[in-house]
């Protein structure tokens, strides 16, 4: 039985993301941003193994990222550092003011053994997606 | 070039409506030009280029006005042309519109009224973008911690040295003082109630600040006098503060041939009554004082009905405006130096207070006997945008126009002011003084505001014949002609022809380099090093405006004699 | 050799006390900068040569070729988008706006995905602000709302806010109270005197409730508001009213969440309300070191601070229609020039789809995902390290960035100028 966590996704700045944001092709950036932090209880409920990955899914898209277990995050919330992985699930609508909804995205999270795509792969796929 | 056949008003040189030739060569007025373009100005009014001595046209609060008022940006929109950048805005035009619109009015010089030293870079970045006009900026000093401390300690030498340093740091032209002491009190939300109300935490009064800065200004022999926005501006009954302020400095002598103090936008400081209910004009009292004291000058601060954006370093005033009018409100307090506020509003003909305010501006100008003590302004954009200057000129020149206007206003304009009874109508000589010769003299700009030998070749030519048109009856023609110059000539180059821009040269920026004794300068430096170490949020080495921000300077020298 | 008082080219704090160690023309050390700033100053992998995409692959070329191609792309486009600007100096922005005017494009900055809603809020209500030094010298109450400076503006608290010492605040942190409002307990929250945890997307209600309490109308506020206990809100309001000088520092928690500019509108209104009782100011924690500067330049040039459509010759401002994300999402831009920003990373993926089919020019020192989509890549010098120019701090203070070392690259300013000149030549040829 696959456990699905319905959660709200918040994306935002972190020190790791900021320190590597001018080096986005680097492994450090990959490590800092292709991840998501869950509340301890949510992480446990999903049965994610140590250093495991999760699949984050919305109507706008889906993305596989590594998962972290973090105190300070309330259950039902997940935090993703800003960047291409988080933005794979942020929708294009700007609410009539030009700014997408980067915080407050309704997502479904499941454990997965799929791997996390690298940044080049993420964008190679975008070009093919564009044909749809 | 040679301007032929025009009817020239050049009051500084005693030319009051004479037909004469004006020759310009290498950007200056000369006796006779060898050859050159001829401009046929027969049957037209010729004056030196207009000089706006007080307008808010560049800097942090102007840009705040733009940013917070996209609704203003949508007015006055004009698409770009081959020659011109796009134009936007009515009360807070973009930089290009400011230059173009001044030029169309025949204005060739404009001064930014208030610059905080810490943010002077912003002022200069914007001044650099304003095309055509020559410009300058007055630097704010009246709430600066170093000033307050020097005044408290009675150290005039150090104060003068700090003023010199502040002018250099800001590339400023003169000493601007706004609600002295009140700006500092506003740092914790307070204000000062009068010139003897001590500034919290500093043990000085506005009276002392004004006197101190005036004495420093005169010790430095600066070209302009202290330029003052009085305490209690905008409050009913404030004319008493204004008169008290003037009396407090009657004994101070100017060190140059000019006024010892210029009080700005006097309309806002000429109020009687005890509240809004019994609000009334006290312009006659103010004018009377000026008639008996030649050492002071003022500018009108005339209201224009319609949209305006108030922006001033009188931050508590702006907060008050916003609460009274339930308007959007921006505030900006600047560490160790000043405060400011921006509030959009609309002046209404049927609003009793606005109607009286409108009358007051005109009363002041018409009741002050000597036009050399008066500058025509609207305190752009506080009283109204400068594009309305022709409206003000027409009002000054025509009693019938004033009467027509009064009929459209709330009746209190007539009841609470003396305007209906004023018969005086300014003539072209007066207008040439209050818009050209006067402001040039008041600011100490020797080559501006006149057309004598060596003057800058800045000329405005209007398609109106002073010998044929009666400005009193045909005030509509006055307004129309002044709204679109037939020719505006800047530094000997035609920039406006038939009311349209034909050239967009870059103007120059005036600033004052004042020298002081090295030992005083050293004391100032020591104080500043201490303040930057403890209180400022930046390093002293990053503070001063660098050369890169003033690409065409025009430096006027002064200094302690 | 130590370069003193260098300005950090990273975040909106624009710290100007950085010491950079230079040996033989190369940067070997940085002092005083936080992890974010020192990372940038010490340097990253660079794009080393201009490139043009041929048959799907980026091939090295000359600057001349790259500028020519860029000019061609912009000239031919009907609605080019000139985007970015947040990590370059004002001098670049001035040219970029002029270029946008001449090619009839839309010019926009990263503000529209960051504090754009704060600007819209300011358009509604104005902003009761101050310079950062006022906060340092006077503030005894700091409120971080939806902001996490510990991770986004690391030196803010020590230089300007919670921990700063000044004229009226000699006790630094000891003399202050800090309130943090956020949807999770961040590092910043851990250092607060009071942390209010709110549910995502409920800032507006919580702000409204606070405003009611502050105005003495607390009796109409229910026992919980969006999951927050009324007693917590009453305590926060009491702390605010008891302050001699309070400041609300707004982060992306307000601008990126449900309500966006309405959240900011309400926060600005709360601060305006508080001024009826005590001194309060508010400030947006701008992310990049010169996004504020672009806004200033754009406002004095066009009348509007961002999202300006110049395609009809007169500036037209309507975020929701003219912002970069709007144009790309609706496939209304037919070319794009990106200067000093990385929209491929920072825009929603579906929006980035709008960049895939159109020619993209990138002007940037560093390779990033936008490079993966670019058709012309023009590497430039890093402003603030290899090129000087003007930047505006988050509080609107403008300062001059320094050039610390030489570089073989043209500046952003030079690159935009070259493209502008070529666009003009192409126009003259027609």
Task: Give a brief outline of the structure.
The complex is a heterotrimer of chains A (132), B (561) and C (430). Chain A has 5 helices and 6 strands; from the N terminus they run E-H-H-E-H-E-E-E-H-E-H.
Key attributes of the depicted protein:
heterotrimer; B: 561 residues; alpha/beta; TIM Barrel; ten-stranded parallel beta sheet; nine-stranded mixed beta sheet; C: 430 residues; five-stranded parallel beta sheet; 18 helices; 22 strands; 37% helix; 21% strand
Describe this structure in words.
The complex is a heterotrimer of chains A (132), B (561) and C (430). A six-stranded mixed β-barrel of chain A has the order 1-5-2-4-3-6. The termini of chain A are far apart. Chain A is built from five helices and six strands. The longest helix of chain A has 11 residues, at 119-129. Chain A has 132 residues and is α/β, with parallel strands linked by helices. Chain A has one domain (5-130): Barwin-like endoglucanases, CATH 2.40.40.20. Chain B has a single domain, classed as TIM Barrel, CATH 3.20.20. Helices cover 33% and strands 22% of the residues of chain B. Chain B is built from 18 helices and 24 strands. In chain B, the strands form four sheets. In chain B, strands 6, 7, 8, 9, 10, 11, 14, 18, 23 and 24 form a ten-stranded parallel β-sheet that branches. In chain B, strands 1, 2, 3, 4, 5, 19, 20, 21 and 22 form a nine-stranded mixed β-sheet that branches. In chain B, strands 15-17-16 form a three-stranded antiparallel β-sheet, sandwiched between helices. In chain B, helix 5 (145-152) crosses helix 8 (206-219), helix 6 packs across helix 8 and helix 13 (389-397) packs antiparallel against helix 17. Chain B is globular. Chain B starts with a strand and ends with a strand. The model of chain B has no long low-confidence stretch (mean pLDDT 97). Chain C is α/β, with parallel strands linked by helices and 430 residues long. Chain C has helices at residues 35-42, 63-76, 90-103, 116-125, 132-138, 149-152, 156-159, 187-190, 203-214, 230-242, 252-255, 261-274, 291-302, 324-329, 343-346, 349-356, 369-373, 412-429, and strands spanning 2-6, 18-23, 26-31, 51-54, 57-60, 80-84, 106-109, 128-130, 141-145, 177-182, 194-197, 224-225, 228-229, 245-250, 279-284, 308-309, 316-317, 335-339, 360-363, 376-378, 389-392, 398-401. Chains in contact: A-C, B-C. At the B-C interface, helix 1, helix 2, helix 4, helix 11 and strand 16 of B face helix 3, helix 4, strand 8, helix 5 and helix 13 of C.
């Amino acid at each position: 039985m696959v456990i699905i966590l319905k959660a709200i996704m918040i994306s935002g700045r972190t020190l790791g993301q900021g320190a590597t944001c001018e080096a986005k092709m680097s492994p450090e950036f990959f490590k800092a941003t292709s991840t998501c932090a869950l509340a301890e209880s949510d992480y446990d409920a999903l049965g994610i193994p140590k250093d495991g990955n999760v699949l984050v899914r919305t109507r706008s898209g889906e993305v596989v990222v590594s998962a972290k277990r973090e105190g300070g995050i309330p259950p039902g919330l997940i935090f993703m550092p800003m960047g291409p992985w988080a933005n794979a699930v942020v929708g294009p609508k700007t609410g009539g003011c030009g700014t997408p909804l980067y915080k407050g995205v309704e997502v479904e999270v499941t454990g997965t053994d799929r791997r996390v795509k690298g940044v080049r792969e993420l964008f190679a796929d975008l070009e093919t997606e564009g044909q749809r | 070039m040679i301007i032929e056949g025009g009817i020239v008003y050049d009051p500084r040189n005693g030319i009051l409506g004479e037909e004469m030739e004006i020759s310009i060569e290498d950007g200056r007025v000369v006796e006779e030009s060898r050859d050159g373009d001829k401009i046929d100005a027969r049957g037209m009014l010729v004056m030196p280029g207009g000089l706006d001595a007080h307008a808010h046209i560049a800097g942090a609060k102007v840009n705040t006005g733009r940013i917070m008022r996209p609704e203003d940006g949508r007015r006055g929109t004009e698409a770009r042309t081959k020659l011109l950048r796009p134009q936007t805005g009515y009360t807070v035009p973009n930089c290009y519109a400011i230059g173009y619109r001044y030029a169309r009015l025949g204005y060739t010089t404009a001064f930014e009224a208030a610059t905080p030293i810490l943010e002077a870079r912003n002022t200069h970045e914007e001044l650099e973008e304003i095309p055509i006009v020559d410009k300058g900026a007055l630097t704010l000093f009246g709430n600066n911690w170093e000033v307050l401390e020097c005044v408290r300690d009675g150290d005039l030498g150090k104060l003068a040295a700090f003023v010199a340093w502040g002018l250099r740091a800001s590339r400023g032209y003169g000493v601007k003082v706004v609600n002295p002491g009140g700006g500092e009190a506003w740092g914790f939300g307070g204000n000062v109630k009068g010139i003897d109300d001590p500034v919290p935490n500093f043990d000085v009064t506005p009276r002392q600040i004004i006197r101190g800065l005036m004495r420093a200004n005169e010790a430095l022999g600066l070209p302009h006098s202290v330029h003052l926005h009085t305490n209690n501006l905008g409050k009913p009954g404030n004319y008493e503060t204004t008169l008290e302020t003037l009396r407090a400095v009657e004994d101070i002598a100017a060190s140059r041939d000019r006024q010892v103090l210029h009080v700005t936008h006097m309309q806002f400081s000429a109020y009687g009554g005890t509240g809004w209910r019994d609000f009334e004009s006290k312009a006659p009292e103010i004018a009377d004082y000026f008639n008996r004291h030649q050492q002071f000058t003022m500018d009108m601060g005339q209201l224009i009905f319609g949209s305006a954006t108030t922006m001033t370093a009188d931050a508590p005033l702006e907060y008050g405006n916003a609460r009274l009018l339930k308007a959007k409100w921006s505030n900006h307090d600047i560490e160790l130096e000043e405060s400011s506020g921006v509030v959009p509003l609309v002046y209404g003909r049927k609003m009793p207070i606005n109607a009286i305010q409108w009358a007051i501006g005109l009363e002041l100008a018409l009741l002050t006997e000597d036009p050399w003590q008066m500058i025509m302004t609207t305190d752009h954009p506080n009283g109204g945008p400068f594009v309305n200057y022709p409206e003000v000129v027409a009002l000054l020149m025509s009693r019938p126009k004033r009467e027509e206007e009064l009929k459209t206003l709330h009746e209190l304009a007539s009841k609470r002011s003396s305007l209906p009874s004023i018969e005086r109508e300014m003539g072209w000589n007066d207008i040439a003084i209050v818009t050209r010769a006067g402001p040039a003299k008041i600011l100490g700009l020797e080559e501006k505001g006149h057309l004598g030998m060596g003057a800058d070749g800045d000329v405005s030519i209007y398609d109106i014949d002073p010998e044929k048109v009666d400005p009193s009856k045909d005030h509509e023609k006055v307004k129309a002609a002044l709204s679109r110059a037939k020719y505006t000539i800047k530094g000997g180059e035609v920039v406006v022809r038939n009311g349209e821009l034909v050239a967009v040269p870059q103007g120059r920026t005036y600033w004052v380099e004042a020298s002081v004794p090295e030992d005083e300068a050293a004391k100032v430096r020591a104080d500043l090093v201490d303040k930057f170490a403890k209180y400022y949020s930046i390093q002293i080495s990053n503070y001063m405006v660098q050369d890169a921000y003033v690409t065409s300077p025009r430096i006027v020298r002064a200094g302690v004699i | 050799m130590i370069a003193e008082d260098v300005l950090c080219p990273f975040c909106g704090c624009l710290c100007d006390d950085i010491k950079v160690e230079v040996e033989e023309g190369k940067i070997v050390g940085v002092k005083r900068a936080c992890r974010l700033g020192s990372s940038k100053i010490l340097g990253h992998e660079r794009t080393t040569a201009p490139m043009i995409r041929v048959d799907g692959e980026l091939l090295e070329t000359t600057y001349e070729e790259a500028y020519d191609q860029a000019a061609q792309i912009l000239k031919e486009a009907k609605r080019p988008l000139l985007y970015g600007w947040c990590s370059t100096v004002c001098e670049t922005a001035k040219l970029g706006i002029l270029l946008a005017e001449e090619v009839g494009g839309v010019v926009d900055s990263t503000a529209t995905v960051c504090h754009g809603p704060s600007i819209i809020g300011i358009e509604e209500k104005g902003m009761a602000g101050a310079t950062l030094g006022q906060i340092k010298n006077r503030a005894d109450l700091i409120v971080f709302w939806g902001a996490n400076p510990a991770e986004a503006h690391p030196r803010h608290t020590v230089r300007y806010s919670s921990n700063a010492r000044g004229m009226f605040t000699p006790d630094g942190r000891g003399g202050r109270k800090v309130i943090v409002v956020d949807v999770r307990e961040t590092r910043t929250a851990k250092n607060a005197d009071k942390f209010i945890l709110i549910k995502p997307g409920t800032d507006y209600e919580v702000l409204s409730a606070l405003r009611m309490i502050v105005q003495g109308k607390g009796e109409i506020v229910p026992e919980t508001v969006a999951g927050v206990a009324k007693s917590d809100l009453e305590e926060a309001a009491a702390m605010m009213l008891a302050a001699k000088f309070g400041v609300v520092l707004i982060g992306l928690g307000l601008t990126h969440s449900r309500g966006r500019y309405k959240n900011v509108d309400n926060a600005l209104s709360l601060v305006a309300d508080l001024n009826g009782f005590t001194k309060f100011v508010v400030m947006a924690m701008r992310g990049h070191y010169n996004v504020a500067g672009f806004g200033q330049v754009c406002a004095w040039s066009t009348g509007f601070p961002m999202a300006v459509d110049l395609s009809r010759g007169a500036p037209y401002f309507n975020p929701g229609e003219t912002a970069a994300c709007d144009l790309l999402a609706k496939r209304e831009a037919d070319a794009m020039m990106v200067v000093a920003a990385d929209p491929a990373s920072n825009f929603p993926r579906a929006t980035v789809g709008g960049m895939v089919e159109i020619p993209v020019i990138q002007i940037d020192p560093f390779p990033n995902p936008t490079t993966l989509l670019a058709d012309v890549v023009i590497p430039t010098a890093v402003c603030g390290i290899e090129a000087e120019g003007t930047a505006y701090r988050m509080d609107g203070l403008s300062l001059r960035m320094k050039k610390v070392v030489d570089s073989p690259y043209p500046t952003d300013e030079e690159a935009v100028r070259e493209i502008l000149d070529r666009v003009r030549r192409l126009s003259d040829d027609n």
